[in-house]
Amino acid sequence: MATKTHLFKGIDEGKLKDFLAAKGAVEHRVLKEDYIFREGEEPEGLFILLEGAVEVEKISISGNRQVVNRFTSPGTVFGEVYIFLDNRPYDFGCVAYEESRILYIPKAAFEAGGEDVAERLISNMLGILSQKALFLNQKMLILSAGSLRKKIAMHLLQKLPSGGTMQLMKREDLAQYLAVPRPSLSRELMKLHREGYIQLDGRMITFDALKLEEILF
């Protein structure tokens, strides 16, 4: 049971197990490259990653594949937006990046009906959706920043507004997040390092917030 997920916060584990079983929730394993859901399918519930990793993808008309997101943290909820949208099929597909264990929860679990567990699930879901809305707003600011240099500066200042030292994502993941080619990202990071805006030591990065803000304004 993914008791660490925010979705189950404040719910008694025994009551939760009984409730989910009654609503038809099921845990299953998926092999690498197996689909959890495909673009165009009708949503019937949401999913929680228990272990492993999954990727959300978009396939273009010409067949090119774009990775929209990759989830690797146990307890991550995904596919949740669609259970609140009437008759809207998935705009994306979701495939196992590696062998994974998934908990599927049907829509019925989120229908308010006076049950304490259902009410708490709905309340927790609002918190999850709010966090994701904040994440999307922050990402929108980054993507609209203009140059790659500005995108990097915006990302760092969002993560550490007062400056200091932090660990960067892996280059591949950061490039994907910023929607830029990985080689271009590596080159720009090294330029910023040489120019004194940042100090790099492996994946650790140190910067002064006021100096980095010079890039944005």
From TrEMBL:
Give the matching SUPFAM superfamilies. Answer: cAMP-binding domain-like (SSF51206), Winged helix' DNA-binding domain (SSF46785)
Q: What is this protein called?
A: Cyclic nucleotide-binding domain protein
Q: Where is the Cyclic nucleotide-binding domain?
A: 7-111
What UniProt keywords are attached to this protein's entry?
DNA-binding, Transcription, Transcription regulation
SMART domains (UniProt xref): cNMP, HTH_CRP
GO MF terms listed in the record are: DNA binding; DNA-binding transcription factor activity
Q: Which segments constitute the HTH crp-type domain?
A: 146-211
Which Pfam families does the UniProt record give? cNMP_binding, HTH_Crp_2
Q: Which domain of life is it from?
A: Bacteria
UniProt organism field: Aedoeadaptatus coxii
Q: Name one GO cellular component term.
A: cytosol
